[in-house]
Amino acid sequence: MKMTHFRLTWANHQQRWFAKWHVYLGIIAGFVVSIVGVTGSILVFRDEIDRALDPDLFTVQKEIQKIPLEELVPLIRERYLDLDFSYVSLTTDALTSTYYTFDNTAKQTVYFNPYTGEVCGKRITGTSFTDWMVRIHRTLLIPVVGRYVVGISSLIVLILTITGLRLWIPKKWRQLKSMLTVNFKASLKRQNYDWHNVLGFYTSPVVALLSLTGFCITFSIVVVPLLFMLNGQAPQGVAKLLNTRSQYISGVQPLTAPEVAAIGKRNLPDATLQAIRLPADSTGAYQLSYQTPYIAETGKQILLIVDQYSGKVVLNSAADFPNVGHAYMSWLTPLHYGSFGGIGTKLLAFIGGLVPLALFITGFIIWWPRYSKQGSLKKKPRRNIRSTIQSSVRQYVNQHFKKGIKYATWSLFIALAMGALYGIVSGIVIQPAFFFVIFATVLIVANFAISCLALLAGVIISIFFSQIYRPVFKYFALSLAFVIMFLPVVLLINITGITIF
After folding, report:
1. Which residues, if any, are the signal sequence (predicted)?
2. Would you call 124 helix, strand, or coil by DSSP?
3. Residues 486, 412 contacting (CB under 8 angstroms)
């Protein structure tokens, strides 16, 4: 009798709007997010795979003294006259790792021995195993739109994680144990259901961070300006900073890469030069990427832009970027691939990438029998969601705003907890926790802007047709509540100047 009551309660629970979103989005996007997740898991160990498959390109014998990276630029120009390149970079920080650049004419990556400056190998772009994995992971091999399909899929995974957690919450606390474990004595159908719940719950912190960072990487052209706006800076200021040009001086010889690197060394004496991008033309500037010791194993990333004539540092991201800018530069990619905390967080990211496939399979097994039986079930009459009683709108909005405040409060604490849990195996909890809140706030602010447009459209429709579409007001009320709860946290960090990243 108790079992019957549990099933009826759960069935009613799944009639809620978030349950329908969970089912429909999971079925529609499940296959895509599974592919993106599996390839992402492979790319967590991209460096290790590259070294195993092509050891001659990535590893050399350790010798006495490495050639400084900046010295490779004049060396290439002297020895390899046909090589058309625009940057030089390290593969990794290891003493046995190589340097590399890209030949723009031959469309291939060229690797150099860091001790002798000799070419130790070449690889045509897009031909290696990891290159294929990158292309599938980022674009699904679909030109142009594939990148955005992947980005939207990442957002869908985040929505599935949130709605899945909401569905996971048991009606009664005495049912909590059954939601945290797999009953191996039950039928295979029940075990599949338990596995779906257990996998989704225990991996939700990692999967949520992976999906959030994946979306932000894809749509960085929107995310970065919004980050600067949250810091009180004009969004176009980002482009202005990054597109800083050199002041052309007629008759003055441009500085060499070693001379510019010396300027960088004076500004950042404890930093390691990771890459140098050369000026593209007579008004271009040098871009130097540095890494400094930091709490994350991947270090703190700093960008210097230097005038090629005067040697003036026109941008130093360490001083010129706000807190959120450092979060983007030093934490976005390391969180996405789990590299910020060493092997522990990399393993979590690897597992997190496989979870969407497991949940898609178990979820489909749950959904299909129910879907196939729908034809024989009597459909419930749809609730009339339109109303002409305008006097109840204020009460309706107020009701959902109060609910939204409650949901947003819980969501804020859950976001902090998820970020902290992702990094806890490495002892790094504060940065991932606040990263989640700050970048989630970007999505919340963007969503609020959309809800305002939806509300405006709803008001216009109500004026012309004398009908009110209530879900629009509900959407606006919930969105407003989330902005009110999340935005002050980010503003407080910016106003107080607390250095988190």
Report:
1. none
2. strand
3. yes
Residue position matching structure tokens 């060229």: 110
What pTM, to 2 d.p., does this model score? 0.88
Task: Identify whether residues 168 and 279 lie together within a single domain.
Answer: no
Burial class (CB in 10 A: 0-12, 13-18, 19+), 190: middle
Q: How many residues does the chain have?
A: 501
Count up the domains in the chain and report the number.
4
For residues 75 and 264, give the distance between their C-alpha atoms in angstroms, rounded to a whole number. 20
| Angle, CA of 33, 164 and 422, to the nearest 5° | 75
23, 27, 28, 31: CA torsion to nearest 10: 140
Rounded to 5 degrees, what angle do the CA atoms 385, 390, 394 make? 90
The parent domain of residue 477 ranges over 393-501
Structure tokens of 426? 């490495």
Q: Do residue 119 and residue 150 come from a single domain?
A: no
Q: Note the pLDDT tens digit of each residue in 449-501.
A: 999 999 888 888 777 776 667 788 889 999 999 999 999 998 888 887 778 88
pLDDT at 12 over 70: no
